[in-house]
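pasting input
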Amino acid sequence: MALFSVKNIEIKGVASSVPKKIVKTKDYSGFTSAEKKMFEKTVGIAERRMAVNGVTISDLCFEAAEKLLDSLKWRKSEIDILILVTQLGDYNLPATSIILQNRLGLSQKCLAFDINLGCSGYVYGLSVISSMLSSGQLKKGLLLAGDVSTSAMNFHDKSTYPMFGDAGTATAVEFSQNAEGMKFNLQSNGKGFDAIIIPDGGLRNPINESTFTDVKDESGLVRNNRNLWLNGIDVFNFSLKEVGKNISALLQENDNSKDEIDFFVLHQANRLINESIRKKMKIKPEFFPYSIGNFGNTSSASIPLTITTRLSDKLSSDKKKLIFCGFGVGLSWGSMMLSTNKLNCVPLIEI
Amino acid sequence: MKIEVFLEKIKNEFEDDFDIEKLTASSKIKDLDWWSSMHMLVVIALIDSEYEVLLSGEELRSVNSVQELFDLVKSKV
């Protein structure tokens, strides 16, 4: 596993942007009333946000970035690096981050590139941007993260349609001499590549006449090859097997105990997964915040969105020691440990 | 490790679910119309936390009844 630390950087602020449209589990006609009840109790999603009118991840992240820069009083010209973590960009190419560099009015001396990751993307993204800022030659950076996952859902696939919500986030990271920095433990297992997949549209399975034909499988799920296919049981098992182990290894490597951590902010795809992990690690609920109830699975936006909507009071007033962990599509996963001090938390933006 | 206790633990997870009373050791899981993949996830989590056994997707797909599930878990404890 990749255990490493990056010094001399700090997270200065976080902003999250979601579509105004709310979609509720209780209104999903694909579920029986027994299924709705079970879903809300087990998976833990009562409602989520859905982008409409062709709103893309760059629109959501643009708003988050603008508000964050304003709140921090950072000048556009000061941004040395922009990274966008997304799996559903505006185009297959060029990278959406470069389009955002222009749209945000950043300098042409700013680096911009995408990272094609989902659930693990925020932690991976922070490892990359912090590594690039650590020497101090680049000073200020923006990490944007999120997906408009609802665009890949089939209404008739009840294993995925009610699970995902849309969100775009912005995190401001800055070089700061002698700052404690961040500690990472990142892993991957490509054997599980098809546990979460959109089968067609890349070069392996190009778009063809049957790509958009809805097909019903033996368990009754209806989807086509441009929809997201999710093997819930395999992902669940992977999560229970690997996540706790990864976090424990990170703590052990750095001689920390879980009792020193103020909050564990994990990616949330299914509340049952996270509750199982929490109980296995013997962590109390008050240290384990959730945003999934109101926003669903928001891909790489889940951790910053949870900060915005559940932790802003606590993180903006004080110094806190945190662990973040993202896990899922790839299979890719990783955790990190960091401290924040009076984090600038912009109120939730709705567009 | 007893099948009655195992079955009772499973039923306790779904105490709000009226249909769970119908579950017996010989119940053929895949044939139950009220049994969903969500029920299966709850059972996986239960087996992991109670017996520290994590069954793979393939293993779960290979069992047909609660008795077979019990036997599989018992073999791994």
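fyi The helical segments of chain A are 33-42, 57-72, 96-103, 121-133, 232-253, 271-280, 292-295, 302-317.
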